[in-house]
Amino acid sequence: MKVLVTGAAGMLGTALCKELAKKGYEVSPTDIGSTTPAMDYLDITDLKAVNDFIKRSKPDLIFHAAAETDVDRCEIEVDHAYKINTLGTENVALSCQRYDIAMVYVSTCGVFDGTKEAPYNEFDAPSPISIYTKSKYEGEKAVRCLLRRYFIFRAGWMIGGGKKDKKFVAKIVELLKTKDAISVVNDKFGCPTYTKDFSEGMLKVVDLARYGLYHITNEGQASRYDIACKIVEYLKKNNVAIKPISSAAFPLPAPRPRSEVVDNYKLKLLGIKMRPWEEALREYLNEFNDE
Ligand SMILES: NC(=O)c1ccc[n+]([C@@H]2O[C@H](COP(=O)([O-])OP(=O)(O)OC[C@H]3O[C@@H](n4cnc5c(N)ncnc54)[C@H](OP(=O)(O)O)[C@@H]3O)[C@@H](O)[C@H]2O)c1
């Protein structure tokens, strides 16, 4: 089976391509940034380029992971966010419609407003509060409206990427090298999601050909502070103090919901289990440190 991946050079794309190759898929990786000789340049905002590429490469399935993932940049550069995350997704979906190809769209658990006390499941109505999450949710709507054979997988706070990690874990690991104390927000909650586990989860659902919308995160929930404490524990950096602080002390351009905690409800109904985030984080840090 031939699989095209957009955003293949990114944090998730890298793990996904590895997982796909391991499972015997023929992988066609594409991206606009840091492409290698084995990776083709494909800008998802260019519909003609997307159509030409897909017509030529004839994949059986497309994993669409390309996105503008800098949440604060999206809040400031609104047109840029919608152009990539919504129109770019529409382009991939339009091309899938034209050439009758099944599509996987990677979305985010951040599409909710965060006011619900209990974890959100797939049947809760999204109500995104930032430009990034609005643009991702509009992407979901385009995929649903244009295609019959689609998977939408919402991920939680991503862990992974090694040197390509631009997110929270990499920032904490870097700070631990030089600081004696780090202040970390303890009033925002989410579900850590290891790129490797997320990729495996997606492939299990894809194998079943059960099209639709799914939440895929590691089990359990955490604040940023909880995650930082675990990083300190696993890297044995107990000499660095992790101090809990309110997000009000860290004003950022984009609003973050109080809670992005979700339940992998549909995954559980299918009998697919995800391991606890602590276990996944420990494994990732071991591998990352060996790189
Ligand atoms: N990271 C998270 O915590 C998180 C959580 C939930 C969901 N997600 C979703 O998961 C997916 C993968 O995210 P990630 O963390 O792997 O992000 P990432 O590391 O930023 O990877 C995204 C990739 O897409 C590329 N890209 C940007 N604009 C493009 C365009 N016009 N055409 C083709 N490629 C383009 C980026 O290149 P440049 O780096 O050069 O821009 C980057 O290589 C995204 O859909 C994201 O919304 C991420």
CATH hierarchy class name: Alpha Beta
Cα-to-Cα separation, first versus last residue? 30 Å
**Count of spatially separate domains:** 1
The main sheet orders its strands as 3-2-1-4-5-6-11
The count of DSSP E runs of length 2 or more, i.e. the number of strands, is 13
Percent of residues in helices: 40-55%
User: What's the CATH H-level superfamily name?
Assistant: NAD(P)-binding Rossmann-like Domain
Q: How much of the polypeptide forms β-strand, as a percent range?
A: 15-25%
Q: What radius of gyration results from the CA coordinates?
A: 18 Å
> Main β-sheet: number of strands, strand sense, barrel status?
7 strands, parallel
- Coarse structural class: alpha/beta
Bound molecules: NADP nicotinamide-adenine-dinucleotide phosphate
Mean pLDDT across all residues, rounded? Answer: 96
What characteristic shape results from the CA principal axes?
Answer: globular
What does this structure look like?
With 291 residues, this protein is α/β, with parallel strands linked by helices. The chain has a single domain, classed as Rossmann fold (3-Layer(aba) Sandwich). Helix content is 42%, strand content 19%. The chain has ten helices and 13 strands. It has helices at 11-22, 47-57, 71-76, 78-99, 131-146, 168-178, 195-208, 224-234, 265-269, 277-290, and strands spanning 2-6, 26-31, 40-41, 61-64, 102-108, 150-155, 157-159, 181-185, 189-190, 192-194, 212-216, 222-223, 241-245. The strands form four sheets. The protein has a seven-stranded parallel β-sheet with strand order 3-2-1-4-5-6-11, with helices on both faces. Strand 5 (102-108), helix 5 (131-146) and strand 6 form a beta-alpha-beta unit. Helix 6 packs across helix 8. The longest helix is centred in the first third of the chain and has 22 residues, at 78-99. The chain is globular and about 55 Å long. The two termini are 30 Å apart. The model has no long low-confidence stretch (mean pLDDT 96). The structure holds NADP nicotinamide-adenine-dinucleotide phosphate.
